[in-house]
Amino acid sequence: MGIILYLKENLRKMDTHHILTISKSILRKYGIDPVNDPANLMIANNGEGVHTIDNAKKVSFGLTQADREVSDAVKCGKISVTQSKLIMRAKLQMIGHEVFGGYR
Q1: CA-to-CA distance for 33 and 84, rounded, in angstroms?
Q2: How far is 60 from 26, CA to CA, in rounded Å?
Q3: Are 56 and 93 in contact (CB under 8 A)?
Q4: What is the distance between the alpha carbons of residues 45 and 32, in angstroms, rounded to a whole number?
Q5: What's the burial of 34, exposed, middle or buried (CB within 10 Å: 0-12/13-18/19+)?
Q6: What is the C-alpha to C-alpha distance for residues 18 and 79, in angstroms, rounded to an integer?
Q7: For residues 92 and 50, what is the distance between their CA atoms, to the nearest angstrom?
Q8: With the C-alpha atoms ordered 11, 28, 48, 103, is the resulting torsion angle positive or negative?
């Protein structure tokens, strides 16, 4: 039984690592430093239920969707690369508000 719990915990850690890697990669693509950029900051308390894998998945999903939309707009010539960076910053704030806005 201990082995099963150990494997579940390691799978959970790998899942979290993968989610964070995707999110960080998308942020860096748009010139957003995942650790130090104010665009990546959101006011949320440290209470139970805030910093969860589920919320990390929601942020990652939102970033992936936003990246597709913004990338497609750049490819089609609708927006410039410079505009894409500004749009992604705004989308990041919207995602943060959607995921963490209720935790104040």
Answers
A1: 15
A2: 9
A3: no
A4: 23
A5: middle
A6: 30
A7: 17
A8: negative
How do residues 9-49 score in pLDDT, each as one tens digit? 555 665 777 888 999 999 999 999 999 999 888 776 666 77
Contact (CB, 8 A) for 95 and 63: yes
Please check the confidence at residue 1 and state whether its pLDDT lies above 50. no
Give me the sign of the Cα torsion angle 42, 26, 32, 87.
negative
Name which of 90, 75, 85 is nearest 29 in CA terms. Answer: 85
Asked if residue 26 lies in contact with residue 67, where contact means CB atoms within 8 angstroms, the answer is yes
User: Which ranges in 1-104 belong to alpha helices (H)?
Assistant: 2-29, 53-75, 81-100
Quick one: how far is CA 2 from the chain centroid? 32
